[in-house]
Amino acid sequence: MRVVYSGSKNSLSGYGRPRDSGVTERIYDAGVDLLVERGYAGATVAAVAARAGCGTQSIYRRFVNRDEMLLAAIEARCVIPPLRNSGRTLDDLLVMLEPGGRRGAQRYRSLLGSALALEAERHPEFLMAFRRGFVWPLRKNVESVLMRAVRRGELRDDVDVSLVADLLLGFSSSRFWSGGDFGDGLVREAVEVVLAGVRVR
């Protein structure tokens, strides 16, 4: 059974795009959706075309082959949460780390990353595109929020922000992989626990 997480009626990955938002957009959605659902083997040009509601020629007019199509789809859909500067460290971190519930975009990104990791040996360029477009920028933004907190005197100036980022990002990954639920307030509680250990006393 196909699971719809968010956004448009026909897409796991949509952020509310209208269903008639264009053939290229539908191809991108279909490409990443099928990678998540069926892996590389199931994300064929024919399957993507069928899911996108277009002909295969529409795809070949835009992309040389399947790999170029999928790489473009990954790059187009690796959108990171916004970097905020509200002056409240906890709130700025939660914007990036909250999963958005069981149907949220962050959970979807975890599913996509998992699918790409399984294909890494044969298609390392897909996983690299995911890292460049989502993992590394997200980590950089988390570290930026932490550095701002250090400069404001909220966190100790001897803290290793890279290690703290590992703890913050690792919580969601551990919870996801263990099959645990992201109950109301759980991410907030986890972030508060981590920050409590590095606050200026």
UniProtKB/TrEMBL annotation:
It holds the Pfam family TetR_N. Residues 27-73 form the HTH tetR-type domain. InterPro entries: Homeodomain-like_sf, HTH-type_TetR-like_transc_reg, HTH_TetR, Tet_transcr_reg_TetR-rel_C_sf, TetR_C. Keywords: DNA-binding, Transcription, Transcription regulation. The keyword Signal does not apply. Residues 86-194 form the Tetracyclin repressor-like C-terminal domain. GO terms for molecular function: DNA-binding transcription factor activity; transcription cis-regulatory region binding. This is TetR family transcriptional regulator. It comes from Candidatus Lucifugimonas marina.
